[in-house]
Design a protein that fits this description.
The structure is a homodimer. By secondary structure, chain A is of the alpha/beta class. In chain A, a hairpin with a 2-residue loop joins strand 13 and strand 14. At the A-B interface, helix 4, helix 5, strand 11 and helix 9 of A face helix 4, helix 5, strand 10 and helix 9 of B. Chains A, B: It holds the Pfam family Ala_racemase_N.
């Protein structure tokens, strides 16, 4: 056995060296030699700081060039340090999906938070919202909930969600409810927002951005004013002429973003480090210890496999159990041995982050640190 | 608005009453009136204690009748209280998927733990295994790892994983490696195990149980002895003539188990309580606040939808975002209103449990308690 495969001659397992074999690995760790050994129990989530920083800068530059305020969605990462990097790069504020996420980020000092979700306002939800310091705004897409905002602190604003083609939540820009909601919100009304989720899929970004612009503009025209807030990572490059955008996944990128045309493989900043635990040479099948309990199983019909090996896109995960990934290894590439470590690019980064309590961050100088996923599991 | 929909006339949200409307809900909460109000922030995982107890008893009775030792897999629930119920019902010990799970359950006093996984034995893994008190056994499916067990405490046993048709990890019962692994294990060898995962799917259970029996028997015949350990929830009812079985999901059941023929809807003990946050009357579309970050997205090709509404199997989730479930509501049933609560039967219970830190348990007398998911996220 060669070095780096974890087995010494005597049969005792060696410390794992976090390194790559040049024949079939690349990515954040490509062509780099490390002067130290490091042991990470796999599976584990890795972040490459240089790529993360570049992704944050690139989106901030796009927003700046188009004079769109950036309010990134922190549900993707749920990590204070990353949200701070986004604000330091010029973000106006942050976007959350739940009251629980907003509580965490407000507690860490973030003072301008939009919960871009049509919250159901129970008494408890109202109490919790009223207790969050800073500038808070929420989403509303029904007359009932517009009326229910009456219990909220006066300075909490509301944006009306409109549907720009994703057909999920949100009222249509032409519906009579739109004006009724606006009326019920009174002075709380701040504008309209949409999530152009139909941007996901190969080549969908441009049309989704056009739909978004039309839905937002039609809405504020009908309502005689208000902020327009939109944005998704796949449509972001085509977004223009709206007031604010709320992309999320762009900080990490993932297989969905690559396939949607939003990034390249070299812009993927988050991977799942895994170990080959089993192999079948005649079938060219290997089994990794990263399963659905860390990779999640998000798999739209337009994606092949449940993630792929970084630097080796043909090596796709054909099946995922809770603690096993099955890969039928490409013929032209040397079959990995037991103990070898592979970096997996997941299909959907947001669901991966929500499965771990901390991530390992590789700094530009080669050192590592960990960050806590402080808002993990804050589903309500 | 009627009662129970969370809205008072004045527009202020009311406390949610956890109750069902008789027209379109059933299940654990069917035809029951509660004399109290209870507020649970949704989405949340609910366990019905009566059904849980019945599921545990039923599997214990089957195992007892066939003289098969029961070693349930705790990765399904990751909850101490449930593992204790299983042991109290006669389980020989428990099965874990990872060292981290074994550490948690050993720390809670469980003394007979099989980690049914072909672990990669790093130095750190060996240290951790050696520190777990009690009777510990692990899985092995390669000569390399059989040799690497030399670093383990002498009383830690190993079972060889064989592939009975699932084509994941495990050696084939006829492979030359089988004897080589047995030889390398020496006195640590305790038997063979398999996971007949090809039991998942409509009508697959019986054939998978037959394949399992053949693979296990062939293996111990070649190896001149040893324990035979198998079992999965869908094949369990057909399992006979092996020494030990390790089903997991049967405690809760889920949409996969129903479709695989392993249970009925009335035997589902775990649901996700969710709230209708948005509706589109003309499309008959409702949006729930339970998304992929609590329901997970496990969806085999032979399952329709990403879970369904308890008591209303035609109401299936057609799309899942992180915090939204989209349901196109059946024509014959009254469209739920905003604020209404629905219980969702997920496709795969094991991945749901791993997304929450606690569950709500409804006792037989109608009171509630919470249990901690102590082994959540223990992926390594």
């Amino acid at each position: 056995m060669g070095t780096g495969h974890g087995i010494q001659q005597g049969g005792h397992p060696n410390r794992l060296w976090w390194r790559s074999r040049s024949d079939d690995r690349s990515g954040p760790f490509e062509h780099k030699e490390y002067s130290y050994s490091m042991m990470i129990d796999t599976p584990a989530v890795l972040i490459d700081r240089e790529r993360l920083t570049a992704n944050i800068s690139r989106m901030a530059a796009h927003a700046g060039a188009h004079e769109i305020a950036l309010r990134p969605h922190v549900k993707t990462h749920k990590i204070i340090e990353i949200a701070q990097m986004q604000v330091d790069a010029g973000a106006r504020g942050i976007t959350c999906a739940t009251i629980g996420e907003a509580e965490i980020f407000a507690g860490a000092g973030f003072t301008d938070i939009f919960i871009a979700y049509p919250l159901y306002l129970t008494d408890h939800a109202v109490q919790r919202l009223n207790a969050i310091p800073g500038e808070i705004s929420i989403g509303v897409d029904s007359v009932e909930m517009a009326q229910a905002t009456a219990g909220l602190r006066e300075d909490i604003k509301a944006l009306i969600e409109v549907d720009s083609g994703h057909r999920r939540s949100g009222v249509t820009a032409t519906a009579s409810e739109l004006s009724q909601i606006r009326e019920a919100l009174g002075s709380r009304y701040a504008g309209v927002f949409t999530f152009p989720g139909h941007s996901y899929g190969p080549g969908n970004g441009e049309q989704a951005a056009a739909d978004e612009l039309q839905a937002l503009n039609n809405s504020v025209q009908r309502l005689a004013g208000g902020l327009t807030s939109g944005g998704s990572s796949p449509s972001a490059q085509f977004t223009d002429a709206i007031d604010e955008m709320r992309p999320g996944v762009y900080v990490f990128n993932d297989s969905q973003q690559i396939t949607s045309g939003a990034c390249t493989e070299k812009q993927v900043a988050m991977t799942v480090l895994s170990t080959v635990v089993s192999r079948n040479v005649s079938d060219r099948r290997i089994i990794l210890d990263a399963g659905s309990k860390i990779l999640s199983t998000d798999k739209p019909a337009w994606i092949d496999g449940n993630g792929f090996v970084l630097g080796n896109p043909e090596a796709r995960i054909s099946a995922l159990s809770e603690h096993h990934a099955t890969i039928f290894w490409p013929d032209k590439v040397l079959l990995p041995v037991i103990g070898e470590q592979l970096n997996i690019v997941p299909n959907h980064a947001c669901n991966v982050i929500n499965l771990v309590d901390e991530v390992y961050v590789r700094e530009a100088d080669g050192t590592f640190r960990t960050w806590k996923v402080v808002a993990r599991g804050r589903n309500n």
